[in-house]
Design goal:
It is a single chain. With 507 residues, the protein is α/β, with parallel strands linked by helices. Among the domains are: 41-322, Alpha-Beta Barrel (TIM Barrel), CATH 3.20.20.80; 465-507, no CATH class. 23% of the residues lie in helices and 11% in strands. It has helices at 50-62, 80-83, 89-98, 121-132, 137-149, 176-191, 239-244, 249-258, 277-290, 312-322, 482-488, and strands spanning 41-45, 70-74, 104-109, 156-159, 199-202, 225-227, 230-231, 262-269, 294-298, 473-478, 491-496. It has an 8-stranded parallel beta barrel, surrounded by 4 helices. It has a two-stranded antiparallel sheet with strand order 10-11. α4 (121-132) packs across α6. It is elongated, with a radius of gyration of 72 Å.
Length: 507
């Protein structure tokens, strides 16, 4: 049996944000403990156009600085032009999304024009078959091109939402099999656009409604997220029944897990039971427990908690749960001094270490042999010195007197011949061998040892032959030095002078 819904029409383009149908059954006891806030991507539907974008910072301030990461709006479903994205407000949402990489843009896309005009099941079945044959593919391709052109190619597309109900023209019940084919063609058309990164969210109503939503599931290849719209209404009298009922919250979680998909809650909020803080508390705890990819509360009356002032108790619960927890003042811990117990010092006995003398081994000293350096005597060749003859004193010449010679007992002496004016110079014979230098091999003359006394030879004075008295020959001895005199003997230069021929110097 169809349940009543609240219909929201856009004043500008005639769009309806959501048809709401849900039912519930009991499963768990209520919990008075306030739910804790989380880092799950959170948002709220505040308005479809620019005013919805402008209200996001104010909602964040109301929640104590809570980051609003999800922006959520709907395309109008009255004409194909709106479904193709030819609306101005889409650019405002795209600009908000591009401001932060951590944000998420969720866009609900109708699958038929005249989406809220209560079209009959027979006409809906005809439209579904036309879509399954590809008649509407160009519309979805133009929408994809529009989103990529606005710089939001990663938009979350909630395509044909609440398809298991009776409100919208894009509902599934009149022809489930062709509806699934139609969904596949729409997704394929949008994915064919270069640059797209769309995520497709399959989001039915909670509960059975007109048809079990699992019968409309188009397949894992064309679905990325399995969502659910869940408002506080029947069937079901409380939140426990909303969990346990057929096609309820628990079956939704189990079905998504079986298909390897993430879950979401694109729409949730108050409805038939008015200001119900228990529902808000339990729904927030359910979200915290099952970690959906994102969730957005529908925030206008009668569903809302911020813009709608008729739900103050639910607003308080919502605000307390999602306001970031701020650390309280730090109370210093009193420091209790620990008594210091002195540790008795026990002297350690000092044991003298015996000194073991190290034996000293004398190092033998090996005398270094001293090889005497042979000294070669340098021969000194004396320069012969020729004495300058000095003229003897000559007595006055007396005229000879003829005296008869008396016979002399001594033999007659011939008159000496005047010597030649040239005085012979005696040179050392060149044949006299000079002392050979000691060879390093042949034994050289032993050098006097510094320990053996050396006998000093006494100088030998040369014996100069004495000329006879009154002889005319005058000899001068030559001194060649000690060493050469031993070799050549004593030499002298003799000059004969004839005193009887007058005063004449032989030179």
């Amino acid at each position: 049996m169809p349940t009543p819904r609240r219909r929201l029409a856009s004043t500008c383009v005639g769009t309806v944000t959501a048809g709401l149908l849900a039912s519930g059954a009991a499963l768990a006891a209520p919990d008075e403990e306030a739910p804790k806030g989380s880092d799950i991507a959170m948002g709220a539907y505040l308005d479809y156009g620019p005013s919805g974008v402008a209200r996001i910072p104010y909602l964040s301030n109301w929640l104590g600085g809570k980051e609003i990461r999800v922006g959520h709006t709907y395309l109008p479903g009255d004409r194909w032009a709106g479904i193709e994205g030819n609306v101005g407000f889409l650019a405002d949402w795209a600009a908000w999304r591009r401001e932060d990489d951590d944000r998420m843009f969720v866009l609900n896309v109708p699958m038929q024009e005249r989406n809220e005009e209560r079209v009959s099941d027979r006409q809906v079945a005809q439209l579904i078959r036309a879509g399954a044959q590809g008649d509407y593919d160009p519309h979805f391709k133009r929408l994809a091109e529009r989103l990529v052109g606005l710089g939001v190619p990663d938009t979350v597309i909630v395509l044909g939402w609440e398809m298991n109900g009776t409100t919208y023209t894009h509902r599934c019940g009149p022809d489930p099999e062709n509806w699934k084919r139609y969904w596949k063609r729409a997704v394929a058309a949008m994915r064919s656009v270069p640059g797209q990164k769309f995520t497709f969210d399959f989001a039915p109503n909670r509960g059975t409604d007109a048809i079990g939503w699992t019968k409309c599931y188009p397949g894992d290849d064309v679905v990325d997220i399995i969502g659910m719209d869940s408002y506080d209404q029947g069937p079901g009298t409380d939140f426990d029944e909303q969990i346990s009922q057929p096609y309820g919250l628990q079956q939704h979680v189990d079905f998504a897990k079986a298909h390897g998909k993430e879950i979401s809650y694109p729409e949730w909020g108050l409805f038939r039971r008015g200001d119900n803080p228990e529902y808000v508390r339990r729904m927030l705890k359910w979200i915290e427990q099952h970690k959906p990819l994102y969730h957005t509360i529908t925030d206008y009356c009668p569903h809302g908690v911020w813009q709608c002032k008729q739900n103050p108790q639910s607003s308080k619960v919502f605000k307390e749960a999602l306001t970031p927890q701020k650390p309280g003042p730090v109370t210093p811990t009193p420091v209790v001094p620990t008594p210091v117990v002195p540790t008795p010092v026990i002297p350690t006995p000092v044991v003298p270490t015996p000194v073991v003398p190290t034996p000293q081994v004398p190092t033998p000293q090996i005398p270094t042999p001293q090889v005497p350096t042979p000294q070669v005597p340098t021969p000194q060749i004396p320069t012969p010195q020729v004495p300058t003859p000095q003229a003897p004193s000559v007595p006055p010449v007396v005229p000879p007197v003829d005296v008869p010679a008396e016979p002399s007992a001594e033999p007659s002496v011939e008159t000496p011949v005047s010597p030649s004016p040239e005085v012979p110079v005696v040179e050392p014979s060149p044949a006299v061998p000079s002392p050979a230098a000691p060879s390093p091999v042949a034994p050289s003359p032993a050098a006097p040892s510094p320990l053996t006394p050396v006998a000093t030879p006494e100088p030998v004075e040369p014996t100069t032959p004495k000329p006879p008295v009154n002889d005319t020959q005058w000899c001068v001895p030559l001194n060649f030095g000690e060493w050469l005199s031993k070799l050549v003997g004593n030499q002298a230069v003799c000059v004969k002078l004839d005193w009887r021929k007058g005063w004449l110097w032989p030179f």
